[in-house]
Amino acid sequence: MLNFRLLGLTLFCCVTLLAASGVAQDNPPSQGPSEHWGGHGRPDPAKRTEMLTKQLSLTSDQQPKVLDLMKSEQSQMEKVRSDSSLSQDDRRAKMTDIRKSTDDQVRALLNPDQQKKFDEMQSRREQWQGHHHDGQKSGPPSDSSDQK
Fold it and tell me: Please, is 121 exposed, middle or buried when counting C-beta atoms within 10 Å of its C-beta (0-12, 13-18, 19+)?
């Protein structure tokens, strides 16, 4: 009788594990922002330019210039990521410098109203990054223009 119960319990556990693994395979983990953006925390240059175009109302003259800056940043970032001679801290510092340089160059292309919106977006991003690095795991700030 004890062997029959043990066999039943073992069978029940096996069926439960198989069912759980089947459900896990049917429901892959959702993509976070960095996976959605190519695994690096920022969307590709075209998507970033499109987002900035919507948020800042970039002109047709500004758009290709911003796109070129975003492409240049992406290229520089890839070089830093692939440089195995850099420590993690050095890599982070170089990437921060590249980001700041790109942001400064983008800002220089903007008119005063756009600069004000851009500065507000940057401020929200910095606040989010500060909270994120303090261990809080909320999503990135929404840089939509309907926040005022």
Answer: buried
**One-letter amino acid for residue 94 of the chain:** K
Question: What is the pTM (predicted TM-score) of this model?
Answer: 0.62
The token pair that represents 71 in the structure block = 């492409």
Among candidates 92, 102, 91, 80, which has minimal Cα distance to 129? 92
- How confident is the model over 97-143, as pLDDT tens digits? 999 999 999 999 999 999 999 999 999 888 887 766 555 444 454 44
Contacts for 52-57 with beta carbons within 8 Å, 24 or more apart? 52/106, 54/145, 55/117, 55/121, 55/143, 55/144, 55/145, 56/110, 56/114, 56/117, 56/118, 57/114
Domain ranges across the chain? 43-133
Rounded to an integer, what distance in angstroms lies between the CA atom of residue 114 and that of residue 52? Answer: 10
